[in-house]
Each structure stands twice: as C-alpha cells, then as structure tokens.
C-alpha cells in the first residue's frame, strides 16, 4: 500500500491515513457490537409482548365464543316469546295491537276486524295517527251521544288521546248495531304504545236499564206523594200546558181523566168547567188575563168557587221559578159553613145581648147558654187543631220515609258504581232527591208555622255551637260557587227555639251564597242592648226597594227571578221569627250587596240540653266495630240502613218491632252496643218503648238514637229524660256516623 520509492513525506502521509482508517474501523467495530446487543434486547421484549397479545387474543376469542352461544340462546328465547305472544293474542277476547315508534308492529285478528272499512289498512308499519284518523272516518261508528255515554267522535291524532300523567287514556266508540267498545292506549316505559279494544256493550245496556228503573221509581214516588195529599194539585208550564196532577184535583174540580192529560191547556179546563156548569153561576167568573198578569208580578191568586152540589172550593195559583204556575184546590165546605154558622150565631147573640142590656136579669140564663156554646166551639176548634197537628206529623213521616230509604240506597250505589256515565246519573238522582227533600221540608215548615197553635221549644243555647255547625254544613256549597264564607265565632248564649232559629239563619246564608256571583258572605253577631243581632252580609246582586217588601212572600225570589229554589226560604224566616218575636231587618243596595239580621234575646250561659246532638267536625275513620240494633217498620228503609251500617263494618241486628228486637237480643245473649230506632212503628208501637224495654232487659242504659220526623216538645222532653239522641228524617249519613261514634265513646268514658 506504501510505495518505497515515494518521497518520505508522501510515505508518512499515506501511513497516517492508513493508521487513521484502522482507528476508525476499530471504533466502528465497537459501535456495531453495541447495536446488535440492543437489537437482541428489543427482540426479547417484543417476543414477550407478542406472547401477551396472543394470550389476550385467545381470551377474546373465548369470550366471543361464549357471547355467540348466549346470543343463540337469546335468539331462541325471543322466538319462543314471539310464539307465546302470538298464542296469547289469538286467545284474547278483545283486540290488541302494539305500536313501536308510532308504527304498527303486531296485532290480533279481533283488532283488525273491529271496523270492516278500516281492516284493509291495518298492516305492519301503519302509523298510529293514521289508525286514529281511520277510526274517526269509519262509516260504522254511531255519530251521536246516547244513553249518557260520551262517544269520542274525533279521536286525537297526536299520540295518546287525553293522555294522563301516567301515559294512559281511553275513549269509547259506539257502532251502528248498538255495540260499544272502549279503546285503551297505554304508553310503555320504552316509548311503545299498546292499544286494547274491549267490548262494553253489556255494561252500557245494563246501565241503561238501571237508569230507566231509577227514573221510573222516582216518578212513582212523586206521583204517590201527590196522590195522597188532601189538596188537589196541578202544575202548568209557562205556556199554560198541564204537566203533573193528582187524582184529588180532578175529583174536586169534576173534570174527566181524559181531559187531565199532559199538555192540556189551562184555559180549556176552565172552559170545560163553565160549559158543563160544574160551578154555580153565582160564583165569580174566572178572569184568566188578570190571573196571569198577577202571576207575572209574583203575586198569589186566590179564588173561591161553589159547585152546584154545594161544595165550596178554595183555588190558589202560585207562580213557579220557570214562569209556570201551580194550582191547588181545597175543599173548604166545612170551614165555610162553620164560618157562616158562626157569623149567624154572632149576629143572633149580638141582638140578644142588646136586648139583655135592658133586661139583664130576665136574660141571665140565656147569657149563660151563650157562654157555654162559645166554650164548646172553642173546644171544637182546639180539637181540630190537635187533629191537624197529628196529620202534619203523620204526613211528614209518610212523605220523608221513602225519601230517606231512597237516599240510603243512592249513597250505597254511589260507592259501588264504577263507570263515569253511571256516576253522573246517580249524582243527578242524588240532587233530585235533595231538591224534593228541601221542598217537602219547606212546605211542612210553612204548614206548621201557619197553624194557629204552632209549637215551639224555647231553650237557652250557645250561638257559637249553632254557627259552627252551620259553617260545616254550608262550606261545600260556598266552595262549589267559589264564594268565600266566613262565620265569626261567638261565645254568647240566647233564648229561642234552636231548630227554627238555625233554620232561619241557614236560609239567610243559603240565599246570600245563591245570589252572590263573586266575593264573600260574612256571618257575625253584634250586641244590641239586651239582644243579640245575628247578621248575614253578602256582596251579591242586591235587592231593589220595590222587591224588598215582597221577598218574604212564598214562591218569590229576588234579582228578577234568577237563582234556584222555590222561593220559600225567606217566607219561612218571616213566619218563624214573627212567632218567636225576633225582629228581622233587611238593608240592601242593588249591585252592592245585602244585609239580613235577626234579633234574639240574650241569656246567661248554661248547660247544654241532654238531647242536643254533637257538632260534627269530621266523619270518623275506620270500621264501625259495633253491634247495632236497628228497629224500623218500613222494610225498604230497614234494608237500606242495614246495608249502609254493614258497609261501615258494623254487625247489624235488624228488627221491625219491639218484639222482634227483644227476640234478637235474647238470641245473641248480649245487649247491642247501640240502638237505632224509628219513632213511629206499627200497631201503636214506638221507638221510645223499644229503648225502654231493651234497657230494662239488659239492665243498663244502652246508647240509643231515635230517627223520626216528630218534633213535638213532649217528644224532646222524653229524649232529655231518657238520655237518647234525636235525628230527623231524611238522615244525613255523616251526622249519623259521627253521632254513633260520639254516643258509644261517651258510654266507654
């Protein structure tokens, strides 16, 4: 590599290059050796990672295999569930369909075939809104509402119709062949919609039959009440067409039944009476035009007639709230003859007394005879009054007995009926019976107050307790109208007839609520010397000065005839307060409101009468775990009361007389926890005798409640003496339940 012939400098340079090259090579050799070692270390690490990844891959393949097996099992389970679902849908009585994402997924044959003209479009994939629109447009739907069932003519097409907060709703459709179906839609947690078609034809038809039966029963009760009245009663519409009458009306007026049919004009009946000369020609001819004008003014028309056979008739015409009128006929022959006879006797005795002034000694014996005759006439009048009082008591019992039984049955029917349409029918019947009860109570109160010997029970009692009970009774009525009812408490005691004072204040408050469209009604007491003034304020429509004088007449309503009721409330207030010597005051401004007040004598606080019932704060809760003896001679009312008490959880011993009650008590070998007895039983038997006998047999004072329409002072005195409570018919169930609880708890205490 080095040429010896080269100069020394060249040879030295070449040698330096060779040495440098060798040094560099040696250094590179060392570097190559280090890189190989690094590559070896990397290969070992890479092989470890490959082994780790291989293990992970094997685990993943194993997991994938197990998942594949589970997926196969799930697929088999799904197929089995689909087969079960298909079998269940075939076995269902109603139609069923499932919509997923608002599209039809599956349905059964009944669902598809409900409406023939909709069947062709019911296929998987059908939109839920399209299904509702097709149902709406079906020609097989009945397009009217019938039998009190609401028919949805236009099912909503925006998802669930009338959807509640729980994703459930339903509507009813009626087919032309008098078939009824309920379509229920439920939204599942996954957002699907399940639709169920259920046929409710039998239920609708049963509700229809039950409604007709209840209506017929109500009509029968009303007609029976009319037919047993001593008055002849007939009602006419605002056009003068006959609506309802009783047999006594035709008998007194001498009109044939063929003429007394619904729709016959009142003028035609009068013309028949004139044409056949049923009324004596000397009697005053009817002036129909004048009568109708008087009725329009809210006045009562009274006319006396004398039939050709000598019978005297008193006819009265009263206007009704619907601009119709009611005609009542009364046979006053005996009263007229007695008045004529009395007038004749007074004339004769006056002449004799004039002569007796000149010959006093001669006619002393004749004067004694006259005094004796007057005494006999007074005794006869008092006997007639006692007879009338007994008749009123019997009439109130006979009229209110079937209404009490009907209200008990309606209460049970309200708790058992489930369909909304049937509940509405029962609710309307309840309101109808309540109206009948209110009207009968008002008529009986007016009859009692018009009697010359009206009985009153004057006691001392707390006004606060009376007003508290009044507040609880009328609070629901005020809340229903959206009126604020505020009754200011009072600790004062007064002297009055508690029943008639409560009825008078109640009528004032009811009128205030009824004639107040918005605002409030305030009831409070104000001292007025030795008297307490009970005031009722309202923000109602007010009463004009022209109407203030006539609002206290019967069948008269303020405010131009607006409102509800028969217009008897203020008439009862005026009569009761006049008998009790309680001044009544009215201050009113139209459009501002009215204030009615009653002044009552104050008295010192005293003890509450033993027969006074507790104030009902709330109906007790829980079962009535008692043995209750019910004594009632009316089979329907006994059955209804038994069913109601058993519904409260009581064990009931039902008896129709005192003898049966004794037999039942001896049969069970123990005394009942409480006795509920009607006062008027059969064969001169009564509830007081029942209580006295059962207590003597048991050797202890069994708690007892008398249920009756009897309000005489002697009866209340017996209640005070024997320590039993009194409830008047028709019974308010919430008061009965509270009174039973109060009486039984008092005995335990």
Explain this structure:
This protein is of the alpha+beta class. It is 50% helix and 18% strand. It contains 19 helices and 22 strands. The strands form four sheets. Strands 11, 12, 13, 14, 15, 16 and 17 form a seven-stranded mixed β-sheet that branches. A hairpin with a 5-residue loop joins strand 3 and strand 4 (180-187). The relative contact order is 0.05. Mean pLDDT is 77; it is low at 147-166, 560-564 and 607-617.
Number of strands: 22
The structural class is alpha+beta
End-to-end distance, in Å? 140 Å
- Low-confidence segments, ≥5 residues, pLDDT <50? 147-166, 560-564, 607-617
Chain oligomer state: single chain
Provide a count of the helices. Answer: 19
Mean pLDDT: 77
Characterize the overall form: elongated
**Relative helix content:** 40-55%
Report the C-alpha radius of gyration, rounded: 46 Å
Biggest beta-sheet profile? 7 strands, mixed
Range of strand content: 15-25%
Question: Tags for this entry?
Answer:
749 residues, five-stranded antiparallel sheet, elongated, seven-stranded mixed sheet, 18% strand, alpha+beta
């Amino acid at each position: 590599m080095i040429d010896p012939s080269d100069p020394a400098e060249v040879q030295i340079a070449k040698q330096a290059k060779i040495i440098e090259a060798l040094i560099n090579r040696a250094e590179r050799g060392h570097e190559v050796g280090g890189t190989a070692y690094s590559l070896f270390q990397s290969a070992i690490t890479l092989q470890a990672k490959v082994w780790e990844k291989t293990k992970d891959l094997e685990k993943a393949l194993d997991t994938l295999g197990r998942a594949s097996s589970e997926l196969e099992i799930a697929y088999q389970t799904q197929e089995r569930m689909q087969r079960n679902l298909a079998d269940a849908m075939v076995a269902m009585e109603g139609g069923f369909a499932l919509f997923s994402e608002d599209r039809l997924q599956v349905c059964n044959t009944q669902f598809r075939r409900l409406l023939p003209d909709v069947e062709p479009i019911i296929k998987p994939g059908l939109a839920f809104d399209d299904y509702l629109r097709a149902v709406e447009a079906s020609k097989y739907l009945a397009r009217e509402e019938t039998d009190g069932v609401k028919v949805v003519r236009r099912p909503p097409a925006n998802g669930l119709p009338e959807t509640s907060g729980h994703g459930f709703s339903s509507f009813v459709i009626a087919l032309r062949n008098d078939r009824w179906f309920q379509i229920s839609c439920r939204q599942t947690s996954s957002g699907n919609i399940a639709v169920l078609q259920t046929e409710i034809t039998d239920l609708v038809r049963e509700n229809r039959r039950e409604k007709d039966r209840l209506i017929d029963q109500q009509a029968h009760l009303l007609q029976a009440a009319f037919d047993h009245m001593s008055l002849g009663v007939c009602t006419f519409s605002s056009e003068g067409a006959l609506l309802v009458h009783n047999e006594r009306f035709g008998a007194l007026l001498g009109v044939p039944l063929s003429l007394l049919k619904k729709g016959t004009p009142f003028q035609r009946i009068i013309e028949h009476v004139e044409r056949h000369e049923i009324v004596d020609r000397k009697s005053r001819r009817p002036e129909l035009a004048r009568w109708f004008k008087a009725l329009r003014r809210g006045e009562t028309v009274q006319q006396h007639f004398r039939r050709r056979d000598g019978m005297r008739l008193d006819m009265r015409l009263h206007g009704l709230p619907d601009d119709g009128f009611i005609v009542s006929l009364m046979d006053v022959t005996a009263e007229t003859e007695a008045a004529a006879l009395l007038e004749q006797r007074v004339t004769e005795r006056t002449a004799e007394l004039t002569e007796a002034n000149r010959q006093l000694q001669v006619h002393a014996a004749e004067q004694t005879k006259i005094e004796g005759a007057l005494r006999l006439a007074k005794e006869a009048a008092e006997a007639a009054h006692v007879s009338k009082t007994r008749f009123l008591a019997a009439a109130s019992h006979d009229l209110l007995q079937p209404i009490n039984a009907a209200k008990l049955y309606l209460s049970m029917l309200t708790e058992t009926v489930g369909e909304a349409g049937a509940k509405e029918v029962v609710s309307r019947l309840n309101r109808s019976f309540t109206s009948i009860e209110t009207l009968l109570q008002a008529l009986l109160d007016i009859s009692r107050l018009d009697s010359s010997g009206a009985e009153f029970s004057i006691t001392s009692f707390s006004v606060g307790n009376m007003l508290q009970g009044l507040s609880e009774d009328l609070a629901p009525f005020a809340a229903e109208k959206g009126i604020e009812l505020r009754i200011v408490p009072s600790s004062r005691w007064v002297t009055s007839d508690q029943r008639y004072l409560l009825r008078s204040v109640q009528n004032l408050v009811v009128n205030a609520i009824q004639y107040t469209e918005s605002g409030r009604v305030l009831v409070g007491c104000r001292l007025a010397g030795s008297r307490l003034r009970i005031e009722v304020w309202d923000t109602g429509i007010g009463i004009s000065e022209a109407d203030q004088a006539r609002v206290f007449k019967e069948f008269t309503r303020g405010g131009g005839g607006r409102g509800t009721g028969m217009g008897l409330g203020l008439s009862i207030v005026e009569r009761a307060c006049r008998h009790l010597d309680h001044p009544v005051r009215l201050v009113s401004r139209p459009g501002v409101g009215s204030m009615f007040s009653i002044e009552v004598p104050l008295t010192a606080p005293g003890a509450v009468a033993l027969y006074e019932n507790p104030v009902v704060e709330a109906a007790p809760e829980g079962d009535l775990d008692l043995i209750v003896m019910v004594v009632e001679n009316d089979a329907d009312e006994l059955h209804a009361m038994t069913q109601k008490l058993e519904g409260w959880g009581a064990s009931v011993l039902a008896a129709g007389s005192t003898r049966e009650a004794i037999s039942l008590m001896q049969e069970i070998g123990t005394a009942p926890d409480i006795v509920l007895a009607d006062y008027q039983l059969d064969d001169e038997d009564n509830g007081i005798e029942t209580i006295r006998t059962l207590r003597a047999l048991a050797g202890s004072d069994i708690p007892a409640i008398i249920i009756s329409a009897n309000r005489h002072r002697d009866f209340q005195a017996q209640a005070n003496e024997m320590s039993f409570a009194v409830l008047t018919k028709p019974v308010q169930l919430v008061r009965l339940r509270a009174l039973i609880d109060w009486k039984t708890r008092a005995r335990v205490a």
